[in-house]
Write a structure and sequence with these properties.
The chain is of the alpha/beta class. It is built from 8 helices and 8 strands, in the order H-H-H-E-H-E-E-H-E-H-E-H-H-E-E-E. The N and C termini lie close together (11 Å).
Length: 281
Amino acid sequence: MLKLRDGIAELYKKVATSLPPDVREAMQSGLARETEGSTAFSTLSVQTENMKLARETARPICQDTGVPTFWVKVPTGLSHFEMKNTIIEATRLATEKVPLRPNAVDSITDRNSGDNTGIGFPVIYMEETRESSLTVDLMLKGAGCENAGQIYKLPSEELNAQRDLDGVRKCVLDAVQKAQGRGCPPYILGVGIGATKDQVTKLAKEQLLRRLTDVNKIDELAALEARILNELNELGIGPMGLGGRTTALGVKIGVNHRHPASYFVDVSVSCWATRRGRLIW
């Protein structure tokens, strides 16, 4: 497990310092959409330069290295207990070596553990796979954009939203309107639809692992993702909320079956520095 620990520590470094190619390309496309000399153009220029420098110098792209969240597919026979301990040890190592900002604070004493580990920290989701290889997905999501997320229970009289996909669309638009530039746009939005609050919250965040070029396999959702993205970029909120044509880079929607009496929608907001990566072992 020692080599795996070191591999996960390297994954931390890669995710913290280098944005995925699809996000980098989307940022460049956003820059090309804005008028040269405008505030939006200047803001996106600074953001793209920041991501370039972080990659070249192997330094964290943002001072807030977020809450480490793992999705792990574990081959049959590999201990989940050992896997969790390996991730925790890798987190301690990465906090020192990358370095990562210590973000794990005891909710009772308000003390920082100093190494990004604690009760339920990092967040780890594990499932068994029939594949022979181990797959580790890591996301570092800052608190600013995490705080901008919203959960909805449909129908909603306030939004005039019913239990349907148009109701989901209204939820996403409302979440971005409420954020009003907080959480560092341009955003990437993950949306989860399903039966329970905890289910849709996890599902929404999982959507942020999808590449921006990925097309939803469900035609209705693919069309909805494209429509919402266009509508968000017509709001004029723009990069960092300073105005412009690039409020969002992508919208990704996941769906589960629901109970006849419940329809929950979670909108997970990610900042422009959507930091994610994968290790296959």
